[in-house]
Design a protein that fits this description.
Blueprint lengths: L9 H4 L3 H17 L19 E7 L4 E3 L3 E10 L5 E10 L4 E11 L13 E7 L4 E10 L5 E11 L9 E9 L3 E6 L10 E10 L5 E11 L7 E2 L3 E5 L12 E7 L4 E9 L8 E8 L10 E6 L1
Parallel strand pairs: 2-9
Antiparallel strand pairs: 1-3, 3-7, 4-6, 4-8, 5-7, 8-9, 10-11, 11-16, 12-15, 12-17, 13-16, 14-16, 17-18
Length: 304
Amino acid sequence: MNNSRPLNDDSFRKPGLAGAFLLLLSLSLGLSACGGGGGGGGEPPPPALKPEMKLTLLSKPDDEVPSGENISYSFTLENKGQGEARSVDLGLQSDTARVSLELSCSGSLGVPAPVCPGTSGPGLTIKNFAAGASVNVVLKGAVKPGASGQVSVAVTAQAEGDTGSSDKRVEHKFQTYAADLVLVGQGPTERVPSGGSFAYVLDLSNAGPDASRKVRLESLLLAAADRTPVLGTKTCVASGGAVCPADLQSSALTDLQLPSGARLVITLPYQFAPGVNSGLIFNATALSKGDPSALNNAYTSIAR
């Protein structure tokens, strides 16, 4: 029996070709499954560059502010990240019963420079905030007349894609106070006889909810130049926690402190020289920050 292979059998003449072919086929299939081999999906795209906003407080009001006063804050808003923020929203949280405030921005720096809105308001949207860019932010307004108590003001910056958790919010708290000074006076309403004596009595009280600070009480008597009466020694009576000033003789009493419900009664005695008298005009005014109305802060007396 003849078991010899035919002369045209390639496997007999080239025993390594079949194995090599199978190896190449296996490698090709493996590369395709892994995404290689040119055009099979490529490497994943790099992560997107993200913005990172930082809000820094530069200036703020004092920790105690009289009602009715103007207040302002200044900030710097920066993009510390490597990506652009298409828009940044600035929000304001405040006690609207006690304060009225508006945000504005200016001084844009960067390439391209961020675009600030042309108007101010309780909220702002800043466009095209490039990496490394910055703007100046101002918060302005006033404490409402008669406001009293603690006020909280907070500004927050939010940008799309910003995942950072710090430096996005700034909060400040301050105390505001309201004092309502009431000045009542008594004095001559008719011409004083020649050589006569008379007095003006000033009754100053605080009807407001809070203590007044640094009250100034001014008084002025007008008479004919050569007939001016002589002022004697002033006296003062304090109640309700008020304190009489150490120096009563000045025409302007300063730094008076009147707690709520307190009272100062100051008497100014005058004396004409013998045989002399004159028509008289007397004015007194009490001034204090935090007083919502000055209508009851003055007294005038005229004696012709």
